[in-house]
Each structure stands twice: as C-alpha cells, then as structure tokens.
Amino acid sequence: MKKMKKLVVVMLVLSLIVAMVGCSSAPSGDSQGGAGGDQEKYVIRAGIGLNDQHPQFKGLEVFKEYVERESNGRIEVQLFHSSQLGDDIQMMEALQLGSQEVTCPSSAPITSIDKRFMIFDLPFLFPTEEVASDFVDGPLGQELLDGLEEHGLVGLAYWENGYRHLTNNVREVQTPADMNGLKIRTMENQVHLDFFRALGANPTPMPFGELFTAMQQGVVDGQENPVPTIYLQNYPEVQKYTTLTGHVYSPFVLLMSKIFWDGLPADLQEVVEDGALVARDEQRRISREYTEELTEGLREAGMTVTELTPEQQRAFQEATSSTVEKFRNEIGAEYVEEVLAEIERLSNR
Ligand code: KDG
C-alpha cells in the first residue's frame, strides 16, 4: 500500500515536470508579459473574415513575412482566414480581452466602439481611392486610430477594401426604384441600415461569415461588397446581378490588442508598426490590381455587371441624402464639417 502511494506521488511529480517543460517550450500568446527581455518569444494570431485568396489575406502574408524576418524570429505570426477565429465583432472583443492579437475588420463594425468611424459609411464621400487613402493616412485618419487606445485597441494602419457595390439575385438595378423590397445583407452598422432603408430596400445586418449561405438559401436577395470580395468569395455562384454603385468606401483597419502591444518590448513594437505600413502599401497595390481585373471576371463568371452613368449615380446620391443629414448630427456636425473640408482640400490638390 505504501509502495503504491509512493508510485502515485512519483507519477504526479513526473507529470507536473512534463507539463511545465511543455509550457515553457511552446511559443504562446500568453508570453506577452515581456518580462523575459530579449529572449522572450511572442505569437501573434491574426484573424480575418475573408478567405485566403483575398487581397486582405495577401497583406497579412506580407505582414507575417516582414515581422518574422525583422524580429529575427522573436515574433511568430499565425494567420487565420474565413472567420476561423470568429466574426469581426467577436475578434475585436477578443483583442480587447487579450485572447487574440490582431484582426482587420472593415471600419463599419468599429462604429460600435467609436461612432466617429461612421464618417466612412456616409455615402459617396470619397471621389477617388487616392483621396481616400490620403485622408486615412493623414492627421484625421490618425486621430481616429489614436482614439481606439482607450478602448483596448491599437490601430496600426488603414488597409484598402475598396468601393462597395451592390449584388442581388432578383433584378438588374439601375435606379433607386429598382431597390424596392430587395432584402439586402448589410454590415452591422446603423448608417448602412439607414442608407438601404432610404432606398426602399429591406436591410438585414449579418456577420460576414453567414453571408454566403444566407444568399444560397434565399434568406437575403443580395449584399454589397467590393469587387475582389464578390469574385473571390464566389458570389457569382449565388448572385446574378452586380451594379457598380460605389456607394461607400469603408477601409480596413489593422488592429492589435493593446494588452499584447503593451507587453511588447519597444524594438518589437517598432517592427510591428513598420510591418503594418509595408504590408499596407503592398495590400493596396494588390487590391487595386484585383479590382481592375476582377470586374471583367464577374462578367466571365456569368453575372450581369451594370455600370451607372453619372446621372444614375446622382439619383442614388439624392435618394440617400437624408442618411447624410441624419448622421451628420449623430456623429457631430462640427466634426463632419472638418472631415468634408479635408476631403475637399485633398480632392483639389
Ligand atoms: O476580414 C474582414 C471581413 O470580416 C469583413 O470586414 C468584410 O467588408 C466586409 C463585410 O462585408 O463584412
């Protein structure tokens, strides 16, 4: 009996040792304390909703490559796509809790944290992609990123998603009247809901990961996203019509958990910051290239692709001007004026 007890104790001690060795050798996201100085290893789990063909994932690959190389392997970046780690809102919450390190949502769901991000949802705001990227890379874009810190998030950079366009499975849309009664999936965002209501559609907010099945099963008639997303997420399989409305330019925002950030030594913070910008430039290049190539790809995949004339686009703008008025006050009239003036300045350079 005594021998048995001894054996049990020995086994317990042994399994404890094995468990401890296992913990210390595996690089883990828990290593964010930074207490081990130079030798400490860090793991960044970066998750997104889009798939691994999308320019957003290509950008993450550049980020991973840069950060792992420039940190001499002290940081490992693990990539997850297709909502493997959750939807945009869940992943942002995980960052705030420190249980995930990086995500890259559209700006639209960030409005639940800071409603100033709603400026990106105001329809027909940016005349060109260049003006949009100059704006986000400028002082007002930076001010928005800085404001995220008090919410447990570090805004590293703006990446490009591109102009959003409408697809549906019911009819070709050329005028606001054609929108009547269409069930459209929107991002989880008040401005988008109001915009589609103003057009007489029936908007349904839904996480991105549920969208394909919802279209396949007819739960919604359509959705709105940039061309690379429409093509690369295989929407032509379940949607017949694309209208190039370009109604909103909502950027991606590369976010890091502030808990994780605060635990990184300064030299590694610099590597992460630089990596976010190097990847941003390449990601934007790929996004613009794909947008150009894949518009034709949508036709080849069997969709009817409708380009709007400037008058037709103006009709959409006029039909939704009430959305701009409504949210001007909601966001803050003075702030919106400042944003509009900056866009005007950048447009006339
Ligand atoms: O990875 C980002 C996606 O999760 C999401 O933000 C894509 O624009 C998007 C949408 O429509 O939800």
Automatic annotation (TrEMBL):
Pfam families: DctP
Naturally occurring in which organism (per UniProt): Clostridium aceticum
Transmembrane segments: none
Any Gene Ontology CC annotation: outer membrane-bounded periplasmic space
Record GO biological process: transmembrane transport
Keyword Translocase: no
Family: Belongs to the bacterial solute-binding protein 7 family.
InterPro entries xrefs: DctP_fam, TRAP_DctP, TRAP_DctP_sf
Keywords linked to the UniProt accession: Receptor, Signal, Transport
UniProt name for this protein: Tripartite ATP-independent periplasmic transporter solute receptor, DctP family
PROSITE patterns associated with the record: PROKAR_LIPOPROTEIN
Annotated PANTHER family: C4-DICARBOXYLATE-BINDING PROTEIN DCTB, PTHR33376
